[in-house]
Amino acid sequence: MKIEFEEVTCKSALTGAGGDYRLNPYVGCQHKCIYCYATFIARWRGKEGPWGSWVQIKTNIVSVLQRELHRKKGARIFLSTVCDAYQPIESKHQITRQCLEVLCKKAHLDPQLDVFLLTKSDMVQRDCDILRQFPGDSLKVVFSITTHRDEIAKKFEPYAPSPSERIAAARTLKKLGLKVGMLINPILPYITEQDMKALLQMAEDVGLDFVGFDTLNYISGHVGRKVRPIYEYMGKEALERFEQAKRDPLYKHELQKLVAKIAREGKFHFKINPLS
């Protein structure tokens, strides 16, 4: 897959307000997940190629982040939302690593700083030396996952590390004493629903600290249009469930009941965060 890489500068590193901020070292993502809601951002960045065919590299974001953090206290920072901070290009530029170094120094000066690091990549293990230096519970590493079945994940996340690689990485980080969680995101109708019990059991076996959930964001057909052909390929039952979930206003409530039922039966030790 040919990818266009473009070096850009940013005026701000942190976006958001009220103490809640998003930090994106890159815009665009090589993982090219079919269901990614961030694909809509292409029109804002003046990009015409399909999602996954371009990545913008924020070359000055580290210095901008240093300046902005100096003026903030008790910030809650989500890394990241319109890219995977550990997509393949990170192995070359190491911008995420440099941002983490800045955040770690700030965490030692500001005990109220809270960093939520979300990724689909086992590359996060490369930065264990920095991650272990974060004080207390100021850092939480979270692995995004939709299914534990590698062959199914490949259809939706063609260029992301496999779920089994992510789980192995989560196990490694937990053994190092880090706070590690799983975000079952997005919950794919029919697919993730069938895998929910296995995913929660995996979280228990690894000893994760928490598990969160989020539903598929259809974005007025923008995402749903790309996901639907996979469901058509999977068969009538899968497609019907996909369409039902899209139009059923009680779908999220139904999922909450499913998670609660599995949690009661499993008697898991990790914290379960509600569907967002």
Description:
The protein is an alpha/beta fold. The chain has one domain: pyruvate-formate lyase- activating enzyme (Alpha-Beta Horseshoe). It has ten helices and eleven strands. The strands form two sheets. An eight-stranded mixed β-sheet has the order 2-3-6-7-8-9-10-11, with helices on one face. The protein has a three-stranded mixed β-sheet with strand order 1-5-4, with no helix packed on it. α1 runs parallel beside α3, α7 runs parallel beside α10 and α8 runs antiparallel to α9. The longest helix has 16 residues. The protein is globular, with a radius of gyration of 19 Å. The protein starts with a strand and ends with a strand. 39% of the residues are buried.
Keywords:
alpha/beta; pyruvate-formate lyase- activating enzyme; eight-stranded mixed beta sheet; 11 strands; globular
Could you describe the largest sheet, including whether it forms a barrel?
A: 8 strands, mixed
Average per-residue pLDDT, rounded, comes to 92
Alpha-beta classification: alpha/beta
Strand order of the largest sheet: 2-3-6-7-8-9-10-11
The value of Rg in angstroms is 19 Å
Helix percentage: 25-40%
**Domains counted in the coordinates: how many?**
1
Give the N-to-C terminal Cα separation: 33 Å
Spatial shape: globular
pLDDT under 50 segments (min length 5)? Answer: none
Order of helices and strands: EEEEEHEHHEHEHHEHEHHHE
CATH architecture: Alpha-Beta Horseshoe
CATH class: Alpha Beta
The number of E-state strands comes to 11
Question: What is the count of DSSP helices, taking H or I runs of 4+ residues?
Answer: 10
- Percent of residues in beta strands: 15-25%
CATH fold-type name: pyruvate-formate lyase- activating enzyme
